[in-house]
Amino acid sequence: MNREGNLDLTSLRIFIETAKDCNMTRAAAALGISQPAVSAAIKKIENSLGSPVFDRDRRPIQLTTAGRLLWNRSFLILEQLDDLTRSIQFSLENEKPDLRLGASDCMSACVCPSLIDYLLNETENISACTGSTPKVTDLLKHRAVDIGLSSDSIEDVPHFQALHFLTERFLFVLPRSLTKQRNISCNQDLVAAVESLPYLRFGKETFDFVQSERIYRSLHFIDQRRIEVDTNFTMMELVARGKGWTILPPLTANA
Length: 255
Fold this sequence. Notes:
Elements: H1 9-19, H2 24-31, H3 35-49, E1 54-55, E2 62-63, H4 65-94, E3 99-104, H5 105-110, H6 112-119, E4 126-131, H7 133-141, E5 147-149, E6 171-173, H8 176-181, H9 187-194, E7 199-202, H10 207-218, E8 226-229, H11 232-240, E9 245-248, H12 250-254
Parallel strand pairs: 3-4, 3-5, 7-8, 7-9
Antiparallel strand pairs: 1-2, 6-9
Helix pairs in contact: 1-2, 1-3, 1-4, 2-3
């Protein structure tokens, strides 16, 4: 048996169309291809099977025994293939995606609940993880999450789209007892009020540190004792106890 290759679906469809009335000319017209293309496809099938599928000595041409066997089985093969193709297309058109979210601490507390609630009807499964802004950015870079919510714009990272959806001012967070003792109406009053208190700041690996430190330096505070913490909850508790003051974005202060 001379085999030049396996049966392919295109050739099989051409064979079926030809075998309907054993006429290559009408098959070519129905398929929108040339008659030589039909003849070449039939020849390819015959080479694959090692046997002719049409008796060309008869007029009109007739199916051989191999051709009748192929005709009987090919309908089932193509019908199952068409059903599979339709099922896959339907699944893709109606399938809801899984979504992986990464969020910084403040975004997780203030934005994620509403966002997840909104996305419930648009997704099949949702997973969310929380961490520092650098961690969220790193997860995005390694494609471990699909969407990252953080204060890092990642505009310099290729192959990612950054959408700016929120702008917030920074707050000076002081102990209540201090604000009752002093009338603070300008930056100079603020500098004078906190000169004896430690400055509370986030760890250097967080993006909030970069932003708040920029503000701290721009106001020309005299270097003072500093306390570095890694969570906003610890920071706010220390401020409430009168142990220091800090500069925070509103979302972090409320988280």
